[in-house]
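[Discussion] Sanity-checking designs against the backbone

I'm trying to build intuition for which residues belong where. Below is a C-alpha cell string of 449 positions. I'd appreciate it if someone posts a full sequence so I can compare it with mine line by line.
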C-alpha cells in the first residue's frame, strides 16, 4: 500500500462520508473497519437534513431505489396516550429533501461503504486499528484526565495488528469506541442525559398507511420516566425500543432485558396495543452510557467525526445526521488544509465551534422534552412557531434563525424549573470509572436486522 493522504478509522456513516468526500477531491484514502459488513448497528431513523450530505455522496438515487421505508413525519404520543398531530416535513419545506428513510443499518452502512469504494476509497474490512501513532510531542502521561495537555504530538498514522500505516491526516470515525478520545481522555459524560435503552424487532405490528406508514413515533411512558421509539421498517418489521434513565431502567432490575422491556410495554398502553398480535423476530438488545461529547474535535494531524466526536441522545434521531454532517465538515477542512499544507489542530477542527453550537440546539430540545416540555401544548399556544420547531426536528440546526423558539418556551416554564446544565458540566471520563458504553446483543442475530 502506498502511503495514503488520509487514514480513516471506522466504516460507519461518519467514516464512509469523510472518506468518500476526500476521494472525490482526488485524495488517497485508506479506511480500516474492524468488522466485516453487513454488521448490526442501531440508529435506523434518518432525518431530512441528511439529504444534503447524501446528495454530495451520490447516494440519493441508491436510496430512492432501495426498499427502505419512506419517512415523511414524526409524531409524539404523550404520557396520557394523546397523539400530537404529525409533524409533516413537507408542509414545512415542500422539497424532495423532506422525505427521508427508515433504514436497516446493516444494509445502509454497507451501501455507504460500497459507495466509498466506488469513489476510490481503499476500504478494508475486518481490520482493527490498534492505536494511533503520535510523534514529536512532549511525553505526556496518559490517563490523567481531561486536563491532560494535548501533548501527545502529531498523529502520523495508525498501528494495525501486523503493521503500521502512515498518512498526513488520521480521521477517527470509530464511533462509541472513541479510540483517540479514550486515549487522550477527551470524553465528558453528559450531565443530564444519563440514559439507557432496550429494544427488539417485531413482525406484523401495527402500521399506519399512506404517508403515515413510515412515521417515527415517540411515545412517552405514563410516568414520564422514559419513552418508546416506534420505527416501521421494510419487510413488515417494526423496531421498538424503550429509553429511560439508567438508574430506573437497569438498577435493581437485573439484566433480564426481556422482563424490563415487557414491564415498560405493560405500563404504556399506546405501545402495547400496537405490538400485541405481532411476532418478535429477534431477542433483546440493550445499551447504556452513550451520551457524551469531546473537549476537543481535533489535534495536529487528527480529527474526530461522528460518535467518535460525541453522541447526544436518540430522542430526535439526530445521530446519523451528525455523523454525516461532521464527516462532511471535516472532509472540507482536510481538503482545504492539505492544499495549504496546514494540518494543524486549528485547521482540521475549524468547523467544530459552529458544529458544537448547532448540536447544543438539538441538545436543548432533547433536555426540554425530558424536563416535561410538551410539543402539543407549545404548538397550540404558538402555532406560528410550528415551522421553526419542525426545522429543529428535521435537523436544520446550524442557523440562528431557529433560536426564536427559546424565549416563548422559557415563558412557559414552571416557576421551579432549573436551568439546563451545559454538556461540559458533566463528569470527565477519568473521574467516572464506573461508566462505560456497552452494547448487549442477543444471540443468533438475524441478518435482516
Ligand atoms: C439507542 C440508540 C438509538 C439510536 N437511534 C438512532 C436513530 O434512530 N437515528 C439516528 O440517526 N441515529 C440513532 N442513533 C445514533 C447512531 O447509531 C450513531 O450516531 C451513528 O451510528 C454514528 O455513526 P458513526 O459512523 O459515527 O459511528 P458507527 O456507526 O458506530 O461506526 C463506527 C465504526 O467504527 C468501527 N470501529 C470501531 N473501533 C474501530 C477500530 N479500532 N478499528 C477499526 N474500526 C473500528 C466500528 O466497527 C463501526 O463500524 C442511536 C443511538 C443509540 C445508542
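Best answer:
Here's mine. Compare freely.
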Amino acid at each position: 500500500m502506498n502511503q495514503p493522504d488520509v487514514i480513516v478509522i471506522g466504516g460507519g456513516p461518519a467514516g464512509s462520508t469523510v472518506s468518500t468526500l476526500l476521494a472525490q477531491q482526488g485524495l488517497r484514502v485508506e479506511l480500516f473497519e474492524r468488522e466485516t459488513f453487513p454488521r448490526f448497528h442501531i440508529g435506523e431513523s434518518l432525518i431530512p437534513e441528511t439529504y444534503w450530505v447524501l446528495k454530495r455522496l451520490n447516494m440519493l438515487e441508491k436510496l430512492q431505489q432501495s426498499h427502505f421505508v419512506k419517512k415523511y413525519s414524526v409524531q409524539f404520543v404523550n404520557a396520557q396516550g394523546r397523539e400530537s398531530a404529525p409533524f409533516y416535513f413537507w408542509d414545512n419545506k415542500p422539497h424532495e429533501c423532506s422525505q427521508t428513510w427508515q433504514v436497516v443499518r446493516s444494509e445502509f452502512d454497507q451501501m455507504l461503504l460500497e459507495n466509498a469504494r466506488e469513489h476510490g476509497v481503499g476500504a478494508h474490512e475486518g481490520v482493527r486499528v490498534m492505536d494511533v501513532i503520535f510523534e514529536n510531542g512532549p511525553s505526556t502521561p496518559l490517563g490523567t484526565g481531561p486536563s491532560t495537555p494535548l501533548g501527545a504530538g502529531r498523529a502520523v498514522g495508525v498501528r494495525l495488528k501486523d503493521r503500521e500505516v502512515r498518512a498526513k491526516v488520521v480521521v477517527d470515525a470509530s464511533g462509541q469506541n472513541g479510540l483517540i478520545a479514550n486515549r487522550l481522555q477527551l470524553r465528558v459524560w453528559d450531565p443530564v442525559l444519563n440514559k439507557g435503552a432496550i429494544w427488539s424487532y417485531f413482525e406484523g405490528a401495527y402500521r399506519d398507511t399512506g404517508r403515515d406508514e413510515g412515521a417515527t413515533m415517540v411515545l412517552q411512558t405514563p410516568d414520564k420516566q422514559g419513552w418508546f421509539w416506534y420505527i416501521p421498517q421494510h419487510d413488515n418489521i417494526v423496531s421498538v425500543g424503550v429509553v429511560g434513565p439508567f438508574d430506573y431502567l437497569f438498577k435493581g432490575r437485573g439484566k433480564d432485558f426481556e422482563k424490563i422491556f415487557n414491564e415498560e410495554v405493560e405500563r404504556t398502553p399506546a405501545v402495547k396495543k400496537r405490538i400485541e398480535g405481532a411476532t418478535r423476530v429477534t431477542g433483546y438488545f440493550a445499551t447504556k452510557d452513550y451520551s457524551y461529547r469531546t473537549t476537543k474535535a481535533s489535534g495536529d494531524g487528527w480529527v474526530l467525526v461522528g460518535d467518535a466526536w460525541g453522541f447526544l441522545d436518540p430522542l430526535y434521531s439526530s445521530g446519523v445526521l451528525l455523523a454525516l454532517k461532521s464527516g462532511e465538515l471535516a472532509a472540507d477542512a482536510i481538503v482545504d488544509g492539505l492544499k495549504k499544507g496546514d494540518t494543524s489542530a486549528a485547521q482540521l477542527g475549524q468547523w467544530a465551534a459552529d458544529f458544537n453550537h448547532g448540536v447544543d440546539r438539538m441538545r436543548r430540545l432533547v433536555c426540554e422534552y425530558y424536563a416535561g416540555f410538551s410539543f402539543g401544548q407549545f404548538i397550540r399556544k404558538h402555532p406560528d412557531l410550528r415551522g421553526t420547531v419542525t426545522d429543529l426536528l428535521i435537523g436544520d440546526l446550524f442557523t440562528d434563525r431557529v433560536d426564536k423558539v427559546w424565549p416563548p418556551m422559557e415563558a412557559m416554564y414552571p416557576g421551579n424549573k432549573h436551568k439546563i446544565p451545559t454538556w461540559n458540566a458533566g463528569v470527565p471520563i477519568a473521574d467516572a470509572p464506573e461508566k462505560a458504553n456497552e452494547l448487549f446483543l442477543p444471540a443468533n442475530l438475524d441478518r435482516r436486522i
